[in-house]
Amino acid sequence: MEAGDGKEETPLSSALSRFQLSEDYGFLLPNPLVGDGRATVPVGCRKQQGNGGAGDVWMPQLSTRHLRGREELYLAHLVLSFITMGYLWQEGEEGTVKVTAGSPARGECHRPSGSPPILSHADFVLANWRRKDPSGCCCPPCRNLDPIISLPGGESLRGFILVTFLVEKAAVPGIKVGREPPAVPLPRAHPSPSIALCSPSAPPPCAWLSWKDNPAMPDGLVYEGVSEEPMAFSGGSAAQSTVLHAFDELLGIRHSQESTAFLHRMRDYMPPPHRAFIEEIGRAPSLKQHVLCSGDARLRAAFNRCITALADFRSCHIAIVTKYIAVAKAKAGRAEVGGWAGRPPAALEAKGTGGSHIFSFLKSVRDTTRDGLISA
Ligand code: HEM
Q: What CATH architecture is 22-34+65-177+198-334+346-371?
């Protein structure tokens, strides 16, 4: 891709077909849109500059007009969001870029897909998978699966993306109870994902994904060419996953005011059809009321099994988060992992990936789930 002045408009699919991020930027990008077409070019700003100065290489304004269908839009959003992340965090937490000078964030693909201009859960997990053998299955333990785009973190990061993906996949039969699943790149079968695949050798990058409530970027990010004021967005978190929100609505779980406010804010990062799906479940007649009014002991037991399974999932998740953050922190303390990719981000130690105080939040959400049990 030629260095440009950032002003010309380029069809996104043809622009994307001509680049592959170099490993210098910490990514290897198998071109998802056009077969094996590969070329290594610098995108965004050069590492040593990154301030919109004279030595920077600018990416042209990209247009979505030539993208075909939902899949290409999702892929384009995935690719551009990852490029933006690489550009912003290339020097770790200390050297954060504050302005997306000539950056891929100026691509339009967040508008038609209704997604915010940041790497969200829908990008990082839902759209970010492929079968190595296209005719093979995508069952655990992920042997035939790979993320389309990964971040530094090796197997640990691969597991983080794919296990979350498999949890989404395992939830599909549950989602079908309410309705056909919303139109997203969700998979089909019903595996039992092993969360143990996520080994805590390196922390997940989530806290680096935010420029809201993140001490490394307290003012947010200026999207050059979009707004002169900095804008704050939360990064990809499974709190943006539709499935848990849908189960909460279906089972009539009532979280605390603070947790509800955070979780509802996370809905802004979901693809609009997902959000609409959750809201529709919320408006539907209450399942819990139906079970209560029926006086049927078997119905009540089945309902309570669902509540217990959901609370158990949340307890398991708390254990994993504790392990991940504590182990990563201890390893960093013993300098077992090198470079900025191995250090637990300051924001992750104190706060969650979307900015919540993680443990009190996660425990509160687990406990209010248990409160949903119907007593005999
Ligand atoms: C190493 C693995 C993981 C870590 C470190 C982690 C970390 C976190 C953190 C810090 C939060 C707090 C919310 C925020 O601020 O973002 C959170 C929330 C959440 N995470 Fe994870 N997570 C992990 C794996 C998973 C997996 C595999 C799933 C499965 C879908 C998942 C589902 C959720 C959900 C649904 C929430 C929202 C809270 C709730 O509804 O219970 N997480 N996670």
A: Up-down Bundle (1.20)
